[in-house]
Amino acid sequence: MTRHLTITDQPIDVAAALAAVQTEAAGAVNAFVGTVRNQSGGRAVRRLHYESYDSMALTQLGHVVAQAHEKWPMLQAVAVVHRKGTLALGDVAVVVAVATPHRAESFAACQYIIDTLKQVVTIWKREEYEDGTEWVAAHP
Amino acid sequence: MSLTIALYGITRDIVGAATIELPAPAPTTVGELLAEMRRQYPALGELRSCAVAVNQEYAPTDQPLHPVDEIALIPPVAGG
């Protein structure tokens, strides 16, 4: 299985992430693209700031992809690119792309990776509103 | 021994620095570190959660700490 795991402060090239997982052994490429939404909890969002503990984020991302490979041994290739820094509305925040021989496993593996990433990867999001900012999920 | 703790996200805002040095006698376990940090910075206790990472892995409360360890406070993550 090939893995391409990246955290970048540059705009994400979705086509490049898709190309990175393409292989003749795979008949299915599945991708999740997360973008910056204009509202959160009923408040208008102006922009986002992502902060990352890069080395740990990549370590944990490696664990997530290894777990996915254990669950779906037919996984051929995975690319995960996460943006950090300041993002505008509509910007791509994250791309997960996977390649498998058949489509069912590609949906499942892609969802597993993005769902688990959100739980364990050390990236924090600060939303900026008209009247202030807030670290997302910080408080109960 | 002293420990250096890296701070990210809201924990950096609460402490007001990107790292904090805990001079000797420093906490010897993850659990002691969390208790000491919450004592010095009560706002840490108001977070939904606050984990400790040792050498880039989530650490249980009974894990011992050493001066050479890479230690960080991990407030609730929100990637994706």
From TrEMBL, chain A:
Pfam families: MoaE (PF02391). CDD domains: MoaE (cd00756). Pathway: Cofactor biosynthesis; molybdopterin biosynthesis. GO terms for biological process: Mo-molybdopterin cofactor biosynthetic process. InterPro entries: MoaE_sf, Mopterin_biosynth_MoaE. It is an enzyme of class 2 (transferase). It comes from the Bacteria. Belongs to the MoaE family. Heterotetramer of 2 MoaD subunits and 2 MoaE subunits. Also stable as homodimer. The enzyme changes between these two forms during catalysis. This is Molybdopterin synthase catalytic subunit.
TrEMBL record, chain B:
It comes from the Bacteria. It holds the Pfam family ThiS. One of its GO terms (molecular function) is nucleotide binding. InterPro entries: Beta-grasp_dom_sf, MOCS2A, Mopterin_synth/thiamin_S_b, ThiS/MoaD-like. The keyword Disulfide bond does not apply. The keyword S-adenosyl-L-methionine does not apply. GO terms for biological process: Mo-molybdopterin cofactor biosynthetic process. Transmembrane segments: none annotated. Keywords: Nucleotide-binding. One of its GO terms (cellular component) is molybdopterin adenylyltransferase complex. Belongs to the MoaD family. This is Molybdopterin synthase sulfur carrier subunit. It comes from Hymenobacter montanus.
